[in-house]
Amino acid sequence: MKVHIDKINREAQLSDQINEDNRYEQEIQLEKDKAQIEHELIVQQEELNNQRYISEKEQGRANQEEIRRKEAELQRGQLYGECKIVQRENLKLKKLLKQYLTEAEQLQFEEDDHIENEKNKEMKEKEELKHR
């Protein structure tokens, strides 16, 4: 019985470690994705700044409003992209949590079944002793 409980405890510890490792890897990936988005935004912002300079120089202030609109669009797009990344990560984490909960329920069911079998075995042994 103790061996079974120790086994379950080791499995739970291993599962916890796997969960922690997965969360850490996901956080690293999320940081990488965020850094990539920020880099792309900086590059695009520089391109827009260059466009603004050329436009103002060649056409005056007529195109400033269009450039501002594009910047706002770019910012909205960036926020939308970040939101989608976070949503995907959250969905992955929810699925992972559901999987771990299912595994924990299965382990609990197996442990309960084992305990019930042990009780039944003890009851049979007691009855056999009574009949002897």
Explain this structure.
There is one protein chain. The protein is mainly α. The chain has helices at 2-59, 64-131. The mean pLDDT is 86. Residues 108-132 are annotated as: Disordered.
Short description:
95% of the residues lie in helices and 0% in strands.
How do the helices and strands line up, and which of them pair or pack?
Blueprint: H1 2-59, H2 64-131
Helix pairs in contact: 1-2
Biased composition (Basic and acidic residues): 116-132
Region (Disordered): 108-132
Main attributes?
mainly alpha, 132 residues, single chain
Percentage of β-strand residues: under 5%
Number of helices: 2
**Structural class based on helices, strands and sheet pairing:** mainly alpha
Biggest β-sheet description:
none
Cα separation of the termini:
27 Å
Give the radius of gyration: 30 Å
Number of domain modules: 1
The coarse silhouette is rod-shaped
What is the typical, i.e. mean, pLDDT?
86
